[in-house]
Amino acid sequence: MGAKEIVGKIKDEANVECEKIMSEAKENAKKKVEEVREEIEVQKKRFIEAEERKGVEEKERIVRAARLNARKLGWAAEEEMIAKALEEAMNRLKEVKTAGFKGNSYSRIMAGLIKDATMSIIAGSSASDELEVIISEEDASFVNPKMLKKISDEINQDSGVNVRLSLSGERIKSAGGVIVRGKEGKVEVNNTFEQRMARLSASLREDIVKTLFISLSL
Question: Residues with Cβ < 8 Å from 109, sequence gap 6 or more?
């Protein structure tokens, strides 16, 4: 084989090898393009899903915020109505003082409050008790020594404890009711209407809410 043939053969083999390399390169490039396209699709899908989740989360956040706001408005309305109902109850005391309540005069109501407070103080006691009754200036006309003597006698007869009630010269600021305390000042029971309503606030609140909101739902 001459030099010319050898060179030709080498060129042919080189061309074949070159075509092979080019073909492999094209195939690899094609695979890479497909891989990139697939990756783009995956990223695109992830982006869409993330945006959808954001949309759902945002929608849920808005719903939660709306529900919380509705509850706050409900609580505010409830508190306002309860406050008005309690205020109205306190305002009605003026009527009770003049007209009584369920057939009981205000003096009789005061006597009941004094007796309840006194019984709370002497509960479990066998010794004699000197107690004083403190009232507001406005209620001074409804309580007198004769009433206190009668209450003392009733308690002594019922309990066997020698109780003596006297009217204090001290006055309290209250819409109504009494404070009964020992002469030494170590023990007292606050039976004013404000304090009684505070003690019964939980049950009062429940009753008011039931009354107000059940009636609103009808």
Answer: 96, 100, 101
Task: Examine the fold and report which residue of 61, 91, 121 is the final residue of a domain before the chain moves on.
Answer: 91
Whether residues 109 and 200 fall in one domain: yes
Could you report the per-residue pLDDT of 68-93, keeping only the tens digit for each? 877 777 677 777 777 776 777 777 77
Query: pLDDT of 6-63, one tens digit each?
Result: 545 555 555 566 666 667 767 776 777 777 777 778 777 887 777 777 777 877 887 7
Domain assignment present for residue 73? The answer is yes
For the question of whether the overall pTM of this predicted structure is more than 0.85, the answer is no
- Asked if 76 and 114 sit in the same domain, the reply is no
Bridge-based pairing of strands 129-136 and 163-172 is parallel
Q: Quote the DSSP letter at residue 116.
A: H
Q: How far is 87 from 96, CA to CA, in rounded Å?
A: 15
Could you tell me if 87 and 173 lie in one domain? Answer: no
Q: Give the residue numbers spanning the domain of 166.
A: 104-205
Domain count along the chain = 2
201-204 CB contacts, 8 Å cutoff, 24+ apart = 204/86
CA of 8: how far to CAs of 13, 17, 21, 128, 197, in Å?
9, 14, 20, 139, 117
